[in-house]
Structure formats: C-alpha cells, structure tokens
Design goal:
The complex is a heterodimer.
Chain A: H1 2-12, H2 18-29, H3 35-80, H4 82-109, H5 114-132, H6 139-166
Helix pairs in contact in A: 2-3, 5-6
Chain B: H1 2-16, H2 24-34, H3 40-52, H4 57-95, H5 104-133, H6 144-164, H7 170-184
Classes of the chains: A mainly alpha, B mainly alpha.
C-alpha cells in the first residue's frame, strides 16, 4: 500500500518530496488508523487545505466501501453454497496463522529492550487468557495500562538522568 | 439505536488502532463479539474476505459489520466513525501540534503502545488457531484434522522462505487453505 502511495504522490504527481514522505511515514506510524488513510489526509491537507483532506480521505475509503458493501449484500447466501462453505472451513484455519504471522513480522521491527519485551509478553498472556476464558476485559484497557507504564518509566528515567547530570 | 451503537463502537476502534493494518482486528473483535453483532466464525470469514479485497482491513470490516447490522446507512455510519479519529488526529498534528510527534513523552507513549498491540495481535492469532483445533471453553477435545491442517498451513507460512526461496503471500495461503477445506471437509 505504502509503495503505491509513494509511486503516485511522490514520483508521478510530485505532490510531496521524498523527504516529506519519509517524515509522513513516521507520523502515520505513531497515529491511529491505517497508514493509507493517514497519508491521504496528510497529503490532501498539504495540497488543498481542509477540503483537500476531506476529498483525499473520501477517495481512499470509497473503493473499499463500495466493494465490501456490494459483497456484504450477498455474502451470506454465497457462504451457504456447499463447496464455498467447505472452502471457508479451511480458510478459517489460515486466518489465525496469518494474524499470528503479521504479529511476528511486527516484532522484528521494534526495539528489543527490557520494557518492550515485558509489555509484549504480558499483553500476549493477558489477552490470550481473556479470549480463552471469555473474560470481560477490553484490549483498550490493556493498551492504556501499557501507555501509562511506558510513560512512568520514561519520567523515572528522565529524573534519574537529571540527577546524575547534576553530580 | 443501532446507528449510534455502530458509531460509538467503531469510533473506539478508530481511536485505538495504533500500529498498522492488523491492529484493528482485536479491537473490532472486542466490539463485535461483546455486542453480539457477529459470531466468531462469521467475523473470521469476513477477515478472510477483507484480506482478499483491496483496502485497509479496518475499513473493510467496519463497512461489512455496518451493512449487516444497519444496511446502507449502517455501513456508511460505521465507515465514517472508524475513519474519523485518524482524520482528526492527522489534521491536529499538522495544524496545531506540529512538534507533537517529536515530543519525548509522546514517543514514550507510542513505545509502550506498540509492543502491547503486538502482544494483543499475536494473542488473537493464537486464540483463533486454538479455537479451530480444540473445543476451547469446554473440555479441550482436540480436532486432529484441523490441528494437522493448521500445522501444515503454519509450516507453509513460516517455513516457505527456506524451502521455496520466496515468502508466501497472505492471498496464496488463503487460496491453499480454501483448496484444503474443499478436499478435507
């Protein structure tokens, strides 16, 4: 996806420079939402202000919306066809593998310090238990807790570093 | 009112979908399963469809769930709600808080969120595999056929690089699993 955006916005239309594209990628990675949406809003605003942001975002959402909405109208009937139902029993087995693989790919990209690894392992165990035992606990609470822990560690370290500088 | 529920549910997904395409899946599962909008199987089928069609998974799932629960208006509301937070946040970052992303404390928050999201995504992936292979929640009776097929698919996904010298794409894996499903079920 990012490759297509880069190709169209940087190389063909020259809406933004390669440097700014790199900066935009950093922003997109630290804000919620798919990178494609973030890029569309950013580049739209950059070129044509608020209206540009609205139209660019609309443009990137519309194809998905139209395709999925059309599919959703007949998916249930489609899934009732014998051979399709069997195919989807197989596909369901693959989806867990795909999601797990996506997580492994993400693990390779992050810093491997003690805090990241601890947060990762604890989040994994807690969420697995929540899913297996159908506990009523949302992943959002876990994310807020992780953000809080990370911020606390950051301030403690900063105070520690500040103290040693004065010595 | 279903439209308001869809709006609030997907607004929450949009606010917390940090860390790329797959981060929306656990959040959407939370909302959809706890509200009883879809069964686990129906959601998994839809994740497969989202994976095989263009566009971010988050948008595809929002459009689908909205459409199932509230027709055209429902799907428009859910899609709008899921995009709104990233739209507003990007604009705020560009217009008002230009230096925000470079603030050390914002970086600290993100540094905590991303490993947590990865842990959550791997837990959901792991749970989905277990759910297909064992009677989870009851007596854990193994389903040997599903177990073997899942192990085979996992081998293809993780072991294809050394054996076939190229990485297997998600679409190829879905196609292989569909053929396996037709043959074995």
């Amino acid at each position: 996806m990012l490759a297509i955006i880069e190709n169209i916005c940087v190389e063909r239309k020259r809406w933004i420079s390669p440097d700014e594209m790199a900066r935009l990628t950093v922003v997109a990675e630290s804000t919620p939402g798919p990178i494609a949406i973030n890029c569309a809003t950013y580049i739209g605003y950059r070129i044509a202000g608020f209206a540009g942001a609205v139209f660019a975002t609309l443009g990137i959402v519309l194809p998905s919306f139209v395709i999925i909405f059309s599919i959703s109208r007949f998916l249930d009937n489609f899934l009732e066809i014998g051979i399709v139902a069997s195919a989807f029993r197989g596909i369901r087995l693959a989806i867990g593998v795909l999601i797990f693989e996506a997580a492994v790919k993400m693990m390779r990209k992050i810093k491997r310090d003690a805090m990241s690894v601890t947060i990762l392992v604890i989040s994994f165990l807690v969420m697995l238990a929540v899913d297996l035992f159908a506990w009523n606990f949302s992943s959002v609470s876990l994310m807020l807790a992780a953000a809080f822990v990370s911020l606390t560690v950051f301030y403690l370290r900063k105070r520690g570093a500040g103290g040693s500088e004065r010595q | 009112m279903i439209y308001l529920e869809l709006f609030l549910g997907f607004l929450r997904v949009g606010c917390f979908a940090f860390g790329g395409a797959y981060s929306a899946i656990p959040l959407i599962r939370d909302v959809v399963i706890s509200a009883g909008w879809l069964t686990d199987d129906a959601l998994t089928d839809m994740i497969a469809v989202s994976e095989s069609t263009p566009g971010p998974i988050m948008i595809n799932l929002a459009t689908y769930v909205g459409s199932v629960k509230g027709g055209f208006l429902g799907s428009a509301v859910a899609t709008f709600a899921v995009v709104l937070p990233s739209f507003v946040i990007i604009l705020l970052v560009m217009v008002i808080f230009r230096r925000l992303m470079h603030e050390p404390c914002v970086k600290a928050v993100i540094d905590g969120l991303i490993p947590c999201v990865i842990g959550i995504i791997s837990a959901v992936g792991g749970y989905m595999m277990l759910r297909c292979c064992f009677a989870t929640g009851t007596d854990w009776t193994p389903d040997f056929k599903a177990l073997l097929l899942t192990l085979f698919l996992a081998f293809l996904m993780f072991g294809s690089k050394p054996v076939f010298r190229r990485k297997m794409s998600p679409i190829t894996l879905i196609l292989v699993s569909a053929v396996l499903g037709i043959v074995f079920y």
